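Supplementary material to the annual report.
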Amino acid sequence: MANEIISKQTKEQLAQQIKQQQFQDKVDKATPKPPLLKNICWAFVVGGLICTLGQFITDYFAMLGFSKKEASSYATIVLVFLGAFFTGLGVYDQLGKRAGAGSVVPITGFANSIVAPAMEFKREGYVFGIGAKMFVIAGPVLVYGMVTAFIIGLIYWIKQ
Amino acid sequence: MNKKRGSQSIIFASPPSITSAANIVGPMEGAGLLQEHFDYIMPDNLNNLGSWEQCESYMMEWAIKTAVNKENSTMDMIDCVLAGDLLNQLMSTHFAVKKLNRPFLGLYGACSTMVESLLLGAILLDGGFANKVAVAASSHHDAAERQYRFPSELGVQRPPSAQWTVTGSGAAVLSTVGEGPRITAATIGKIVDYGIKDTNAMGSAMAPAASDTLLTHLQDTGRAPAYYDMIFTGDLGSVGKQLVIQLMQEEGLDISSNYQDCGCMIYREEQDPHAGASGCASSAVVFCGYIYRGLKTNKLKKILLLGTGSLHSTTSYQQKESIPCIAHAVAVEV
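Predicted assembly:
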C-alpha cells in the first residue's frame, strides 16, 4: 500500500517534469534571441574606446614627466571619476544598456556599480542608505577579487 | 441561492456596477499608444515628491479620489477600500490609504492585484456586506526596479524577453446601485508553476496560469471564447501572449481573434520596452482607461479581464526557487 502511494507520487513527479520540460521547449521557441552580433559590436567598440581613452590619459601623464606606474595610477583615478560623473548625469546606464560588458568590464563600470546604488539609496540616509548599500553590486567583485589575490599570493609564496 | 459555478467560478446574483474609473501614469506611459485614455500624465517619475515610493502613494491616492469624485460621491460614502501594489509590505498602498481614512483591506496578488480587488469588491457588494467600495492597484517603474532588480542608474543590459514596469495607478468605484458596466462573473485562480526560474521571463512564467484560469472560466460558465468581444490578460507581454494563444490552441480553443494583452497595448515599439509592459498598473491603467471607456461607449460589450501575477520574491529567486504564478478573471458586461 505504502509502495503504491510512493510509486504514484513518483509517477506524478515524472509527469510534472515532462510537462515542465515540454513547456520550457515552447518558451525557448517563443523567446526572442538577443541580437548577438549587434551586442558584440557595441561591446567591442565601446569597451575599446574606453580603453583607448585610458591609454591616452596614461600617455598624457607620462608626457608630463610622471613615471609609468604613477601615470597609470592617475589614469585609473581619472577613469573612475569619469565613470562616476557620467553615472551621476544619468548617461552611463544608457551606454550600458547598449554596450553590455563593453562598459561593465572597464574600471568605469566598477565606478558605475558603486555610484549607482549610492545615488539610489541616498533617501534612506547616509548610514543605512549610502553607507550600507554602496557595495551591493561591487561587493562580490571585491570579495572574490581579494580571495583570488590571496590564493595567487599563496601560490607565489610557496613557489619561492 | 448558490452563486458558485463549476470548480472555481462565481456568477453574481445581483451583478455590481463599476460606476466610475480613473487612472494616472508617468511620462513614458503618457507618450505611449494609449495617450488619450489617461486622466492625468505626470511630468516625471517623481512629480515633485521626495521619493519614488511617495510618488506611487500619491498616484494611488489621486486615482481613488478622482474615481470617487467622478461618481459624484464623497470619500465617506465608500464602505471599504481594497487595494495593493508591488512593494514590500504594500508600502505605497498603506501610505495612500492612510490619508483616505476609510475601512481598508490590503491585497497582494503581484500584478494580478487589480483583478483581485475587482473580484473581491464584487463579492462584498453581491454578498450584501457593502454598498459602495473603491478598488485600486499601482506600480512604479523605479521603485519596483530597485526592490526587485538593480539601481536605475546601473548600466545593465536587459534581455529581449524582459518587460518594463508601468508607472501608474488605476482605481474604480463599485456600487450596488448606479449606472455602469457590471461584473457578472469571476474565476478565482490557482497557483500554477511550470518551473520557470528566469525573472526576466515573467510573461512565459505567467502564461500557464493565465491559460489555466481562462480554460477553467470557460468550462465553469459554459461560455465559448467568442462569447466575449475581447479577452484581456494583464501583463504577459509579447512572449507570454504568444504562449497563451498556443496553450489554448492545444486545448482546442482559438482565441487569436479576440485576445489582447494589456502589456502589449501601452508602449510604442520605439520606446524600447522589450517584450512589453508589466506591473500592477499594466492591467490597472488599461482597464480603468481604455477598456472602461470602451464599455461606457458600447464599443465593447462583454469583456473578460485576466489579472496575471508572478508571486516570487527577491529572496525566493536568490534561493533558486521557480516562479509561482496566478491569474484571476472577472467578466465585465454592459
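The longest strand of chain B covers residues 17-25.
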